[in-house]
Amino acid sequence: MNAHDNLIWILICGFASIVHITNADLSYSVLEEMKSGSIVGNIAKDLGLDEGKLSARKARIDTEESNQPYCDIDLKTGNLIIKERIDREELCGEKMSCLLRFELVLESPLELHRILLHIQDVNDNSPSFPKHVINFEISESAYKGARYRINEAHDDDIGQYSIRQYELEKNEHFVLSVGEDTDGSKNVELVLDKELDREKEHNINLVLTAVDGGNPRKSGSVNIIVTVLDANDNAPVFNQTIYKATIAEDAALDTVVVKVSATDEDEGVNGEVTYDFSRISERAKKLFSINSKSGEIKVIGPFDFESNSKFEIRVSAKDGYGLSSDSKVMIDITDVNDNAPVIHLKSLTNPVAENVSPGTEVGIINVQDRDSEKNRQVRCSIQQNVPFKLVPSIKNYYSLVTTGQLDREVVSDYNITITATDEGSPPLSSSKSLHLSVADINDNPPVFEEQSYSAYVSENNKAGSTLCSVTARDPDWRQNGTVIYSVLAGEVNGAPVSSYVSVNGDTGVIHAVRSFDYEHMRSFQVHLMARDNGSPPLSSNVTVSVFISDVNDNCPQILYPAPEGSSFMTELVPKAAHGGSVVSKVIAVDADSGQNAWLSYQIVKSTDPGLFTIGVHSGEIRTQRDISQSDSMKQNLIVSVKDNGQPSLSATCSMYLLISDNLAEVPELKDISYDEKNSKLTSYLIIALVCVSTFFLTFIIIILGVRFCRRRKPRLLFDGAVTIPGAYLPPNYADVDGTGTLRSAYNYDAYLTTGSRTSDFKFVTSYNDNTLPAEQTLRKSPTDFVDPFQDLESPLQSVF
Ligand SMILES: *[C@@H]1O[C@H](CO)[C@@H](O)[C@H](O)[C@H]1NC(C)=O
Ligand SMILES: *[C@@H]1O[C@H](CO)[C@@H](O)[C@H](O)[C@H]1NC(C)=O
Ligand SMILES: *[C@@H]1O[C@H](CO)[C@@H](O)[C@H](O)[C@H]1NC(C)=O
Predict the structure, then answer these.
(1) Which ligand is located closest to the Cα atom of residue 543?
(2) In DSSP terms, which residues pair with 456 in a beta bridge?
(3) Which of the chain's termini has less CB crowding within 10 Å, N or C?
(4) What confidence tens digit (pLDDT) does each residue in 339-368 have?
């Protein structure tokens, strides 16, 4: 074959298979009795399908109705193969065309192809007569030409394989006549060709053979025994040649279908007619019986309209002498709605992903009803409250499609009930339940239970202590709903946030990584992320604010006077000071806040307990009464400063007061100090300081005197903010306001010492808030104070 021939061949084959496909139907012809495994045809090729994809598309052969699975598809090659022996006679009986219907089902996308299999007859059955022996009793007076009917033979095969001819064994008396009845059946008769003579022959034995049209031919035969009788007789005669009856499929047992009746003109025994079935199919034998006396044909078995709706029976009537005739009974079964529809689930996508778009086909349903006409018209429905509907498809197929968006987090499975009802009366219905699960898609991010979280922790917490815990919920399934917590990178005060807090990835419990210091930081924020384990993962963020609360962990810090032992400082109290005059002030700060920094002052020990008091909260030391001559010049107070924390912390300091107007008395100062270690250098410095101060004071007095004379008021100090303790002022100028106190605008001064024992410098600065953080005060360097002094218009403020 050359290429050109090949092409033509392919074209011919192509057309041949196209001819087979009508309305997406494939039709094949196959002989009955083929061995299992025989190839009927190649479905894949005939439908133009890729045989490689048959497996993936779950190709399969489904039988319509409840036929046995005679055929199957070979998924590798696409061949339709015989699975089980097919017996045409068993399937279709006498029907001329014997069809098997199959469906080829392919999924994704769903495809249905109807496959029709024509079962061809093979000559596998021989003709056979209803009885092995036929007895005739014929009177010797019978004329030549008398006819005796013989029940025809039967061959299960059809068409060319059915009975073609009858052959009668050669004999003297009889010939065979085969005619055709009106209903198509054969009328086989023996015709008397030569008169009988009882005196010669009592019995005649004949063999009749029926032959079919097969190649080789098959045959069957019957023995005919003719008994020659002596007397004249009449055969019974049926009153109808054909009896027709109709009976409902659901007829009860013993129902009389029809009554046949034959009469015999003879008297006595010769006139007694008995009835019998002369030819009846095996099936009909199980359904009908005949009463030999009355001729009543009764129901003895259940009918099934769907498998057999017509019966043709021959009955014979025989008289006492054995003369017989026969008649035909035709029984039609009428359909009764006795079959409920049957729902077959042909395909189901289970589980179905929750993100399928509405209108997605998830299953295929086939509904069958074996009844006929109206009784097999079926309506299919589904319950209302599910997002699915049935869409009629080819013939009695329905697609189950989604009508809305599925959400596994709301409904994770559906029980779908499909109900099929036929239109018979009364209608029959049946239902089937499907269970459909919805598969998860990672479509929900974890969501924190709160929009933001706050954690409160006392300072000085232990590293590792729990601050708070966060919770995020993700309703998705398994890993798609597993939440993992983490701290988002960021900075707190310039340090990575991870050096402050950590979170347990599984539980969401937040731990402090270090100990917090309220004085260093009062609050900070951390950003956390909750992520699920899906792929891709979904996440959400939340802010956690951590508030650190104060603990009374700082002692009051006394700024003035300087702590005992490290410095030596004293205050001058004018001898003329009245009771209630402020003579000095203890200044302390506390790095804590609130109650923990609320300071109270108390004199715990004094040289003369009645002379000085201290403001509990101001720290101002006042005279309690006017100073008298008898008071000791050197006064020593020990002041305790206590905060209001729980428990409270305290600090003490010593205050040295010198009741004197005369700076010359200062040399004795060293006696006031209990400090044995005071060096000579300190004394010299003090003397020098006093001398310089005296010089300045004298100078100032002169200036002031001049200004006084000009009746000019002295200028107020620098916003009242910078001043000197009254102790350094001469008594007559101390009471500037004449109120008995040193100054109404007396400001609280922060005094700073360098800590050196040999040089005590006082730096004056504005100080209005006794809770001013210590570091702010302490950080000031002496140079910070230089400028204000340089700018002073009046030297009054300058003390040294
Ligand atoms: C579906 O039916 C099954 C078994 O009958 C039952 O266990 C299940 O709870 C039902 N589900 C729904 C969603 O009704
Ligand atoms: C999680 O979601 C993805 C799609 O987002 C899906 O493919 C997977 O099957 C889901 N996992 C589970 C356990 O359901
Ligand atoms: C959470 O924060 C991270 C880092 O800033 C960012 O990449 C992510 O997109 C945020 N997620 C959401 C849901 O806002």
Answers:
(1) 3
(2) 547
(3) N
(4) 899 999 888 889 999 999 999 989 889 898
